[in-house]
Design a protein that fits this description.
single chain, alpha+beta, 7-stranded mixed β-sheet, 4 helices, 21% helix, elongated, ZAR1/RTP1-5-like_Znf-3CxxC, zinc
Length: 164
């Protein structure tokens, strides 16, 4: 099993993040099917394609007076956008602390990020693949008010619950 890698964004409390430094790992993950990919740093540029899914991460609350120190999430919203000639970017949305409602500090599970982005790029390139099966884990209900992906209108959990 591959070593679990993560990227910590210590001290950063933004509503969303990009990880262009992971482009080489994404490129390596698709290299058997796509000769080159490029990361578009212009996250507001109109894209040809867009797909919302989840990655995994861990959050810490840096509010010293808060009782909640940290939490993990398997539903960290990521929006992957596709551009011509195998260009892409991916925006990962932050979450708020359940206790104090402040933005958390994200530590991204890099393996889940690379896996999700690579899968989507291969699908867009027409590579025939089986959809991966992820084990379901019992977690507390999704809290829209704490999810920056929901607030931005991209969270799949929010879209699903709105359809029920």
């Amino acid at each position: 099993m591959a070593k679990k890698k993560s990227t910590s964004l210590s001290g950063e409390t933004k509503t969303s993040f990009t990880f262009p430094h992971l482009n080489q790992e994404v490129a390596d993950a698709v290299s058997n099917h796509i000769t080159s990919v490029w990361f578009n740093r212009k996250i507001n540029q109109e894209s040809d394609r867009k797909y919302s899914t989840f990655v995994m991460g861990r959050f810490t609350c840096d509010n010293g007076s808060c009782s909640k120190a940290a939490w993990s999430s398997g539903k960290v919203t990521i929006v992957i956008r596709g551009y011509p000639d195998n260009g892409y970017n991916a925006v990962v949305y932050n979450q708020r602390c359940k206790a104090c409602k402040k933005l958390g500090t994200l530590t991204l599970d890099e393996n889940s990020y690379v896996e999700r982005v690579a899968y989507r790029l291969k699908k867009w390139a027409g590579v025939d693949m089986e959809r991966p099966v992820y084990s379901k884990k019992e977690t507390p209900p999704h809290k829209r008010e704490l999810c920056e992906g929901c607030k931005s209108g991209y969270c799949e959990a929010s879209m699903y619950s709105a359809r029920i």
